[in-house]
Amino acid sequence: MNMYTKLRLIAQIHTCLRFYRQTFHYVLCLEQAKGRDIIMKILVYGAGVLGCNLAHLLYKSQKNVTLLARGSWYEDIKQNGVTIRHKFRIRNTNDKIPVINSLTDQDIYDVIFVALQYTQLDSIISILNQNLSKNIVFIGNNINAKGYIDLLKEKNVLFGFFSAGGKRNKKYVDSFYLNEMTIGRTDNSHESDEWIKSIFQGTKMRLTIQNKMDDWLKSHVAFILPFVYTAYYTEYNYRKIKNNKTILYEIIDSVREYYDALIQLGYEVLSKSDYQFVTSKKIKCYMFLKLCCYTALGDLCVCDHAKNGKNEMIKLNSEFRELISNKMVETPHADFLEKYIPYK
Question: What is the mean pLDDT of the chain?
């Protein structure tokens, strides 16, 4: 046997071992879904607002969860735990969640929740591909779900959106969350439904399993972008427009235009009630906007993220506008507001 043949054999053996280890851990997840007593190892990759709130929810429900953080934030969590100031609940929590600052090839988890901003996802694709964990769930804004599935072909890739907002300060997270998550596949298959439920069994998370997540995420971007444009227009202060009926209806009409553009491109607007919100129920939408302007909702739901996630918003806007660039539907209201988004 020559050296070349030996090297090929070693490579084949390595590939087979990798496949069987991944398969073994995936089967363990499925066994838990059938109700057997197997404790899932969960990693939340990213310790921003979404990551810390998700890890907090899982940790307080006795789940075996680890948080991945970087830099000084990792050191602070390692020493002091995760502190969250919960808006609207008037309380603080501190959790001594296990924390790591890197993911090695051999760190195997039953599921990895990626809770990073959209602009940061590409930087960890090689890390996820090299790691032996099988199941990856991207949590947060994403306009290219199917593209990330292609980049992680050996993985079981799902997508989700956790209803949380706020901002991360030096020593704590100032935020709120609603115990709600929309999560699922992109292929309209229900094969992962029971496995998803098993992850959150025993928690207070209210799940909406949606297996057209590519459509759902694009619809979500169509919904939030006009709100984000207006955050820049008001310099992150929605109170400036609380009596500006014209601008508030510009937001509503912009969302409708973006939804119509997606429909023309063959996407389904999800959820269907959101489309009704900006068409047949515009008055309710207008009142919701007024509420955002008069309360902290505008800051927590829109302005904080528009400010702290500016690069993410710019990227989402650029890719969404490119997506609908061949549309036949006119978008004059959205075009008017879109000019306020910064490009630096």
Answer: 89
Half-sphere exposure of 38 (CA within 13 A, CB side): 21
∠ CA 212-214-216 to the nearest 5 degrees? 70
Most distant CA atoms of the chain, gap in Å: 82
> Three-state SS for 207?
strand
Cβ contact 49:165 at 8 Å = yes
Q: Name residue 5's amino acid.
A: T
What crossing angle do the helices spanning 310-323 and 213-233 adopt, rounded to 10°? 120
Give the per-residue pLDDT at 297: 82
d(CA 108, CA 21): 9
Domains and CATH numbers, the chain: 3-211 (3.40.50.720), 215-338 (no CATH)
Q: What are phi and psi of 327, to 5 degrees?
A: -70, 155
**CB contact set of 340 (below 8 Å; sequence gap of 6+):** 229, 230, 232, 233
DSSP secondary structure letter of residue 32: H
Q: What is the pLDDT of residue 33?
A: 46
pLDDT higher than 80, residue 37: no
Q: How far is the C-alpha of 253 from the C-alpha of 333, rounded, in Å? A: 6
Distance CA 117, CA 124 (A): 12
| Terminal-to-terminal C-alpha distance of the chain | 59
CB under 8 Å to 20, separation ≥6 — which residues? none
Instruction: Tell me the residue type at 115.
Output: A
**pLDDT tens digit string along 120-138?**
999 999 999 999 999 999 9
pLDDT of residue 170: 84
For residue 67, list its beta bridge partners. Answer: 44, 99
Task: Say whether pLDDT at 23 is over 90.
Answer: no
Structure-block tokens of residue 139: 């949590």
